[in-house]
């Protein structure tokens, strides 16, 4: 059976991930992501109303025109998890393919919301839920399987396409977490089985984000303990405490909510995306928040809540807000600019349960946000976080488990691939032979 891989997006950047695998006549698409930094750099761009081709020209969504060179039918579109760089282009591209979107329940729900807010295209693809551990047939000869992985968002999987020539494992995005705060540990046992059964692993497509970092990525339970240490140390503080983190990071939000109550403060989630992700997780029963946990997204209800907090005494509350990267329109940035009814006093604490995404725009915006907060007297606690991506030792472990015959580095640009390339070469792989460094828009034929 002919096996061909189209590396469509996310091979020259972090963002707009998209890869297609053709096995005989069947094609499966993994991820359709958005490169948010290409959108945010322009003022007032509303992607909801934009045409795909304009977004492709901006570099915001994958240029999927290479798909016409693949001789097969798309049988499934498979987003691996709910981060925007993996699902953000579905509303712009999926309608071109007559195929269902197959994902885990939390991811499907986020895809559904995204399709709903789309204003240019009517996306009619079937939405099909599939849990980790389940499989579905792709045509007569291939099978799709979801393997449970751990990442900075719940319900993440690595999809595996089993073909007569061996398995194709799509490895984006994960960390090796054996004690995640929510959900099951990464299913390493299944990865080891896949590496040893049948024809083995024909190809492994891997996220290189942290391949240059030594050691292993700590578990989410480590970030949780760090956060607990910081928050418990503030138990006797009788002024304002504000916290921020990734809205989609449900495990972290849960820890913040829990520790707020432990130190005698009422948690409240503020900001549009805080309401969106936490509300969705609660509706789908991934979390069990306290009944009286307030979640407010709209500007008016947020400001009303801030007024209530000021009236009832801010020492009784812990607002958990958007703005961990200093995004100009996010809640914490507005608080820093003094645009909300919440007044920050000398000595008040601001907890960043996040790391700055190492990108000049983020670094500048976060710097500005911290300065503004500092000018009002805020004290900053930052970097209470662990990464969602594998470090070096995790990568070695994955190669050992899967023993792949071919490797395609992904989720980076060329310079970002280099550490992973060195790591693979130290394990006996060779560039141009079984280690395929590629760019957006290329086809790699693995079996002729
Ligand atoms: Zn991710």
TrEMBL record:
Compartments, record wording: Cytoplasm
Protein keywords: Cytoplasm, Exonuclease, Hydrolase, Metal-binding, Nuclease, RNA-binding, Zinc
Described function: An RNase that has 5'-3' exonuclease activity. May be involved in RNA degradation.
InterPro entries registered for this protein in UniProt: Metallo-B-lactamas (IPR001279), RibonucZ/Hydroxyglut_hydro (IPR036866), RNase_J (IPR004613), RNase_J_2 (IPR042173), RNase_J_arc (IPR030879), RNase_J_b_CASP (IPR055132)
Residues annotated for Zn(2+) 2 binding in this entry: 85-86, 173, 411
Stated family: Belongs to the metallo-beta-lactamase superfamily. RNA-metabolizing metallo-beta-lactamase-like family. Archaeal RNase J subfamily.
Protein's name in the database: Ribonuclease J
Start and end residues of each Metallo-beta-lactamase domain: 15-226
GO biological processes: RNA catabolic process
Residues engaged in binding substrate: 385-389
Family annotation (SMART domains): Lactamase_B
Protein's UniProt keywords contain Nucleotide-binding: no
Entry GO CC: cytoplasm
Cofactor or coenzyme needed: Zn(2+)
GO terms of molecular function: 5'-3' RNA exonuclease activity; RNA binding; zinc ion binding
Residues the entry annotates as binding Zn(2+) 1: 81, 83, 151, 173
Cofactor note (record): Binds 2 Zn(2+) ions per subunit. It is not clear if Zn(2+) or Mg(2+) is physiologically important.
